[in-house]
Structures
1.
Amino acid sequence: MTDYTVDYLMGNARVLEAAGRLGSFSAAAAELGMTQPAVSQQIGHIERVVGMPLFMRRHRGVALNEAGRTLVAAASEARATIRTALEQATAVSRDRALNVLTDYGFAANWLISRLPDFEKICPGVKIQILTTQALQAQPPLGITADVSILFEAAVRKSGENRITLFEEEVYPVCSPAYARTYGPFTTLADLGRAHLLHLNGHENLWFTWTDWFARMDPDLSARGSQKTARFRTFGNYPLLLQSAMQGEGIALGWRPLVDTCLESGVLVKVWQKPLRSRRGYVLTARTPRSSQAELFCDWLVNLSRMNI
């Protein structure tokens, strides 16, 4: 075995470990924020580099063979050792940054604009924003999230270190120029004929246009008209909102992510009735909480209660 083989395995340990642990390339892709074909291709390349199969392909999922189990165990141990060492090295510095993990949409459309206010109140706390599109909180290797603000499909009961900040509340929104040019949108049929902007990804995690039409009116004809109106899709929420602000169509607007745009008039609601669920953004703090995390969490909770 060459040094290249060892180095390649180390560089792809996360994919190998996730696929082996979950027994599914699709589940590994979801956890890592990748596509299933990309994971499958990478595993195939690993097997070619080591010169042997590591997985048994089955009709449903995959299973490690003996060689695969040996390598995945070694990869998991190596990653754990590196993570522990980096955490210990980072902890030496008392003024280290507070690592905040969240998704692109929450960071870009809500959190970043409000951080200067926190920095005025707590000037000694350094904030490092980590972003993810994965379903699970997976910060970069060697970095531990002190605080996470993630959208959860089923909001569990709040506790000392878990607090629901915002429950899901959605409105269709567009630019004033688009509303003037293509409106008014007084019926579901009007909306069904509009340029609807769609968010790709884990559709079971948040509302889609199909969900919205079905909840507003269960009539099949209304939903049928919507199905033909898929105009443009986006892989992350800030890009989708940018398209809406540029007058390219109507987007589903999640509160509080669109609040600033609505207040400034950059976006307007085209349907006043909200669509709500018990899903939403949840604040989770690592235990034990540092004094920095305590200050940051208190600030976030106060903001959410004031709904600003």
Note: The chain has three domains: 3-91, 98-166+280-306, 167-276.
2.
Amino acid sequence: MELRDLQYFEVIATTGHIGRAAEKLGRTQPALSKSVRRIESEIGTKLLVKSGRGVALTTAGRVMLERARSLRMSVEQNLREMADIAKGAVGNVRVGSGATTAEYLLPLVCSRILREAPGIKFEISIGMNDVLRTALNDGKVDIVVGPVTKGDESNYTVHRLGEDSVVVAAARGHPLTRKKATIADLQDYGWVLPARSVVTRQWIDAAFASRDLSEPDVAIQTNNISLSPRLIAPTDLLTFISRRNLGRGRVGEPLVEISLPETTMHREVVAVHRNSSYMPPAVERFIAILKQEAGPALEAIPEFELS
């Protein structure tokens, strides 16, 4: 079984269409079809079946996709390991981060590493937890820094860094800032929130549902945390944001917290990476410095206003 055939199969399985896979790979459709038939001939079973205008994985195909992806990542890791050995401390660190940790923690870590080892290069991707875990599983990032999510303990190596709180916030002068608000009062206003696949959205939805209240009425759904305060400032919309983002000089400076214990989410900040026998030296160095810098950085909560 040739490695190239497995690589072609992974792209076909991911796109669900041989034509699109051929365009992506710069190969002809017959060549890709032939590569799949070679694998099927060797293992003695079908991997793909027609589905509409595309293809779908059989049960064996789903298993083969996981094996092909694992093999590709292993080859990529081996190549990087050889390069790291040749270059010593010089290397690349591919970091996936939530917006809050990217703004208040990563600058400290990256600037220190660049002082100590200027040959190390960083690739930083900012995103929501679901997108970042997918990137980690696909081998597109080495490590993810941000809030812990369900399944992290069983799926990854977890490094605990500190704690964070997520709170309801509104523009200064919002009607809820002029009275002692209850969680029921929050139902009267629209919200700016991330997608349902994001942990903070799931948590605030559950906070309402557990009290027999209707879920937040989402007027704007966005994964851009820096955009939320600007969307909310001229309106009566509410949002659910890290308390660290509120306060003078912060991304959420136009907002104030609507203080309610039942809508305050306490979450753990972690760094996670794949369970692997090999970790590039540059990534190991990043993790060590991250753990040193995280404690003081996460304890330094900025000044913020309560409604």
Note: The chain has eleven helices and eleven strands.
3.
Amino acid sequence: MAIDRESDYKKGIGNNLSNIGIVYKNLGDYQKALSYYERALAIRREIGDKKGEGADLGNIGVVYANLGDYQKALSYYERSLAIGQGIGVPTGRQRANMADVWLKMGKIEKAEATLVKVNDPIRLGTLNLIKKNYPKAIEYFKKSLQRNLQSRNADFLFADYAGLGQGYEGQRDYSRAIENYEKAMAMVEQQRETLGQQEKSRFFVAEVMNFKRIGPYEGLVRAFQHKQNLPQAFFMRKISRPVCSQKPWLADTALWSRSCPPIWLSRSKAIPPKSEACANRWRRFSGTKPWTAIMKRN
């Protein structure tokens, strides 16, 4: 940013501010994301960058949608859409975002009319999950997965696996649900490895393509309960509360989801997380990290 400021290249400054906003949005820090998006938006308007203005209006709408303020989100999406139409750029993203909000508001038919035109398999899969058409949902998520396994886009892969987990759970195929929830969890854990403690906890707050990052952990609880695997269900139930302020160390226990049996949790006050005893147990179990073992099955 310093180079851009020295050259007074304000468009570059706006781009950088917007990119920082995206990072904070992905981390689940929505207030910081809004701050950067709004600063970027002010610069776009100052220099007359209509395309950038439309993009940042859409970014702000995404934040408000994730915060649950759907009317404000729609207001920003509509302004972004109007700018896109005015300058003749593709507006599929704005329409898809608006459809996401309508789904959350329960306006299924209105959302479906738009999503069919946008033809995004992840969003169509989500639509069919809501409609409880699980075979169709699975079909869309598999189609998306084939494409995203090539691009290795972590967020899209997470959404594919989370969606497949929900689809199979809806069909009561709990073994396949567990398999896909574990893969979604693995995507989250791979991303969390490089984050600080506070960022790790907040990371679960963020939504990815309308799927909360905590969702696969909660899905595993339900699936293990249905399979009568109560010890594993108990363990997953414990680690699905990563933002618990009274026990912030729970944010890290997902990293050890197969290393320490439930009895370890009952003694957690005596044995701190990631203790040598726990680490030794894990090494004897498989010799690698749990999410690494899961992803090797792809």
Note: The chain has two domains: 1-105, 172-298.
4.
Amino acid sequence: MKRKLIYLLSVMLLLSLTSYGAIKIKGENKQYQGEGLTIVTSFYPMYIASLNIADGIDGVQVVNLTENQTGCVHDYQLTTKDMRTLSGAQVVVLNGGEMEEFMEDVLDQQEGIQIIDSSAGMKFLTGSTHDHNHEENGDQQEDSHVHNHSNINGHVWLNVERYMKQIQTITDGLCKIDPLHEGMYRKNEETYLVKVQSLKGEFDSLKEITSGTEIIIFHDSFAYLAEELGMEVVHAVNTDGETALSAGEIAEVVEEIKLHDIAYLFTEEQYEHTIAERIEAETNATVYVMDSLVTGGLDKDSYLKGMKKNIEILKEAFAVKNK
């Protein structure tokens, strides 16, 4: 027990050093003097993190701007209801990594809101995001499966170590804005980090058998899961409900699978799996449906449960292939 406590304190110290100076708070970083604090989060992963950090603190409420079932917010558009929600916020917690471009103009006009960018100072993976632009002519055919709003991949919460840094950054920001409740924020932070750290241990053990494995992903969020496990993403195909791959694009993916002898296709549970299943039928690869943790209920343990489910799927996948 003593050894475990020392280890946790070391982890928290490392996270503190990593996030020091990486807190991005808009405006003059004023301490909040009101009777109640409303924290508005941009979308589901930030909601669950903030819900844990602010758990049980009187006068502090966490509200998710987008519906918990919205999913990825690349193409989200603010509603009248969202504008009302933002008008009542003192703090807005963002994921960062250009995930919240839909909010930028509105937030620039909100003078009284302080913004915490949970991934400030973090180096992002690069790769496709979402652009629904499918050209099939000339030189563009090779890149027609890439959905570029930006070259930044902002889905950092799917790497547990990065998610722990986000927890640290959110906590540091809230403590600066609301120092009256710093002790409770810190206590909640420690409690949550203990739980998330247990996931990190499971991923580290799993990495012993996954490291170096070549995979194909059907949502670029899984690039961070691959990073966590030392896997190499050979091809990222985005199938987000509005995207249809041409026969030529599917053939290209099939060719890559055969060329690299790829056995694992990781797709997202919130979208249809038709394309992945079609590719599976034409190869020896197997489709595994993972959770990108962008939707869920009000349970503050949703991230933990979703990641544990992903871990079990990965264990099953590699147990089958290694028989």
Note: The CA atoms of residues 8 and 194 lie 7 Å apart.
